[in-house]
Structures are given as structure tokens and as C-alpha cells.
Description:
With 648 residues, this protein is mostly beta strands. It has 6 domains: 27-128; 135-228, no CATH class; 244-343, no CATH class; 349-441, no CATH class; 448-543, no CATH class; 550-647, no CATH class. The protein is built from 6 helices and 51 strands. The strands form 13 sheets. Strands 17, 19, 20, 21, 22, 23 and 26 form a 7-stranded antiparallel sheet that branches. Strand 22 (298-304) and strand 23 form a beta hairpin. It is elongated, with a radius of gyration of 26 Å. The protein starts with 13 loop residues before the first strand and ends with a strand. The relative contact order is 0.11.
Amino acid sequence: xPLVQTRGxxxxxxxxxxxxxxxxxxxxxxVFSTFLYxxxxxxxxITNNIDLSTKGGLVWIKDRTNAGNFHVLTDxxxxxxxxxxxxxxxxxxxxxxxxxxxxxxxxxxxxxxxxNTSAANIVSWTFRKQPKFFDIQTWTGSGANxxxxxxxxxxxxxxxxxxxxxxxxxxVYHRSLANTQYLVLNxxxxxxxxxxxxxSTTPTSSVFSxxxxxxVNASAGTYVAYIFAHDAGGFGLTGTDxxxxxxxxxTNGSGVATVNLGYEPQFVLFxxxxxxxxxxxxxxxxxxxxxxxxxxxxxxxxxxxNSSGAETTSSAFEMxxxxxxxxxxxxxxxxxYIYIAIRRGPMKVPTTGTSVFATTTFTGADAIQTSNFPVxxxxxxxxxxxxxxxxxxxxxxxxxxxxxxxxxxAQQAQSGGIFTSNTQVKASDDGNSYKRSYEMFRRAPSxxxxxxxxxxxxxxxxxAHNLGVVPELMIVKQRNTARAWIAYSxxxxxxxxxxxxxxxxEGSGTTTWNxxxxxxSVFSxxxxxxxNQSGGTFVNYLxxxxxxxxxxxxxxxxxxxxxxxxxxxxxxxxVLIKRTDSTGDWYVWDTARGIVSGNDxxxxxxxxxxxxxxxxxxxxxxxxxxxxxxxxxxxxANGGTYIxxxxx
Length: 648
């Protein structure tokens, strides 16, 4: 049976340029980072906003492109001139040109080909020392049974030990195994029994035990241990949220298992333990840990901790994310695995729009655009001056797929990765020098979330989300077949709906949302095939009002100038408007194309019509946006009703 684990509570705390914590609180984005970069062959500074110089921690680097370049592990306890290889038994290296410095916002690297080959795609995983998350300890072996003190502040769930002064295997303790068992990180071996490794003693919240085996405790040998917590709380405003889980799962006779973490992970390291020949696989959402359109397999990029091999990609890999954990389908049958899983961030509620939303326009083919945050969701308007093609793309569905907001088409595949690094996105790979618009979103509590789910056809079905507040706007699309886009608006209520790819006014239907409003943790569906077809795969984009960042609201038209107060201080940078009581398009404005006192170009999400640049329907207003008296009935009819989404 799959292991079901304790759920963590929802978290909320501001982040952004002017965020200030009222109380001391810890968040996953402060202690863990997956950072992708392209090698330059010259000195390079990596800014991942993890404080290593003050707090301490571990940086694990792997060249994704080139086979033969080993994993490089460097920690602040042993120093920059001492590196280990997870895929080898070698003693610590003393190469001075790999990781060269730790800083308060990341680290620096030299020109070594193992960490900085020119033009190579490289990944770094950073683990900061923090109670109830991660710790590092070193010692000199005694050759006798002993204990080692630690600072984890909870019972260690996984301990990875490496002798540093000479050749030795990597020893792994995991809470899901007996305290007489061990695994070896640099091999594909199954779990083995050895009472002299951990002295047949389970760790406590203050110490872990070592036996006499030279792998962990030879007299005069030098060692380092990387220590991981499990469901220990310690994070979020209340200090009760879990951010790391070390558990196990066993697939059934069909290869199916579901792991409930209580949160959506961003990183999973897992290993089969009951049979030899299986690698230590590392998956993360930055490189690609997405959900295929069949809803039961993942599009996964894998690296093996025990191998120097290059990254591999599988479009039919039978592991995939859920909003509360991960799952397998048609994997190895009746097989047992252990894992380390780390929660997706950010956990803080944004306080500035620029920390979660960016907009830009450019003309060119396949040009890379950069934001100041990891982009989770991208709306591209391609060929603004002609017949527009809409591309809705996101990390959760995969880097090579898109949906079209103006069409009922199923999810489509395309070549070329969209999310090329933490902060860069690349235009659709079409080779045409079109004028394009980008609307870039980051998933964040109280602002925006995304859920992929498989329909059941059962009225009253609920699905978990991680928005942390009640969604006010939800936009749902079936992915595996042609189907209309269905939208929920809190203003309209739980028995009404809108269609994104249509101009239609609001519709009524008890089978859409099951006459049940969403909550801060779940949304409800009726039996409508458009939202909940049995076996159908869907994506739901969820938005909410976040003070000073976003506003989901409604207004009644006056046919005169009307100011919409969103609680902003410098005006809206993005505005979406839809009339609900009568027909009307889905209008979009943004500051990249122009929200000014004069003409304001607009686009229509539901059509392929070219950008209209000759109208002045909205204007600037510091608290939100202003609707012009010249706006048509689709935006400002006297007595007309409208919904909107605005982002500061």
C-alpha cells in the first residue's frame, strides 16, 4: 500500500521587494533551490537567493548535457576546496576551480568543466542548513560504537555519509528501512543488512549512532554526513508546515502507487530498495517534472546520483505530480522505493506584483525573454499584427505543450523548450519574426495556482489546490480532447459559468460547479463532461485577490468614465475584462503594449483578431485602472455587468 503522510498547513507571508516579516518564520524558498544555468567556461556567479555564507549548506552540481562529468558536492563545513562525487567512491577532491565561494545570495564557480562547461546545461541543488530541514556534521572516526551530535532539531529521517580522506562507498540510512539496513548512494544495489553501520540504533532528535564499519567510522578516518528531516514542521507563519518528507511507497500489481505528502513537491530523490539494478533518480520541476495529457504519466527529466551520465528525458515516464504529492502508474510491479521529497515554493504571499507577474512585447523569432522570477505560466500572443495564435504554456503540463484560448482544441505538442532556465522563457519554436506579447506568471499563495486533474464523472467531486485562499476566478480546459474552456467567477456564483473561447454571456448549469463554491483548499465539480468527464484530463488556472498585487472583481457599467479601485498604488499593469450579462469578448491590456492616457492597444483572448491599437477604452489610475466613456458596450454599457482580473 502507498505510504500516506501527515499534511502540512497552508502558509502565507509576504515576499517581494518591500516584504518585511513581522515575526520570524521560515519558508522553503529560503533554504532550498534548484537553479539551472548555462556554462560559460569562465568565472560565474550564481544568485539563487540562498544564504550560504552566513547560514551554511550544501551545493550539489551536475552537468546535464555531457556524459562523464560527475556530480560535484561542496559544502560550507568542509570548504570550497573539497568536493565529493556522489557517483564515485573517491576521496574528496581539492580542485580550486570548481565552486570558488559561498555568498549570502548563492555561490560562485570557476572554469572547471565539471561545473561550467561552455554552452552546457547545468543544474545546481542548494540545501541550506536549517533546523527541521537539513544539517551537516563532520567527525573523525574512532573505530568503536559511538554517537554523533547533530543540529537538525528533529529525528533524522535520512543520513548520507561519505568518508573524505580515502576511497569509500557512500552510506545511506533511511527511516523507511530497519536500523540494521543501509543503502549505497554510488551504486544500484538493493538495501543490505549490516548491523555495524548504524549500530542497530535509530537516530534521536539530538544524536545518530555509528557502528564499527570503516565506511562510517574507521579509526582516524574523516567523514561528512548530510542529514535530512521528515515531516518535522518548522516552516510557515505558525511553524507547523512541513517542507521535507522522507518516506517509502510500494507499487501494487499494476505498478500503481500514490504518495500523499500534503503538498506539491518540487524535488524528489528516489531509489528502489527491494531489488538491485535501480538507480538513485533525481527529478525536479525546474528541469521538468510535469504531467502528460493522459493524466497518469509524467514527462520527466532524470539524472542519476550514482551515474555521471547526461540527463535523460522520458515522455512516458510513469511518475507524475499531484497537487498533494506524486504518483506512479504502470511502474515496476509490487516494488518498494524510498524517497526524499521537498515542497514546492514559494510559501510566502507576494506583496508586489513585479515578484509574480511580468509582461513584455518584442519582435523576433524564437527570442529568449527574461523575468525576475521563475515563470510557471506563460500566455504568448504570437503575430500581434496579423492572425494571432494564442499559446498557453506552463511548467506543470510540460515545456513542449500548449493550449489555445481561442479554440476548443486539445493540448498540442511543439518542439523547443519553453522554460529554458529559472527566469528565462523562449518563444514558440516557429522561426517567424512576428511581433509577440508575453504575460508571465509565477504560482504563489493568494495570487495564482494551477492544478492538473483527471475527471471522474461523479457529481460532487473535489480536487485539492494550493492557492491558500478561496479562488475567485477559475479557468478550466480539457487537455486530451476538443472541449470548450469553462470559467468560474465568484461574482456570478456557483451555478453560473462563462466560456473563454466564446463571446457568450453567462450560462447556468448545476452540473458545472455542483452548486458548490470553492474553498481555500479544494474546488468542486458537477458531472458536466466539460469539467469532469470520466477519464478526461484537465487543467485549472486559479486566481484570487492578493492585496496590492492582484484584484479579481466586478463592476457595473455606466457608459461614462469609471474608475476601478483595485487597492494598488501605481496602477494596473495587466487588465482582463469580460461582460457577463450579454455577449462580449475577453479583452486584455498590459503596460508593455500600453496603458496610457491616450490610445491603449488591446487583444482578445477568444479570437485570432490582430491587436487593435487605435482605441482609448481604458486609462491609467493609480489605484487600479480607469474605463473611458468612449468604451463600447462590451466594456462599459450602462447597467451592464462585468468581471475583471487586474495585476499591479
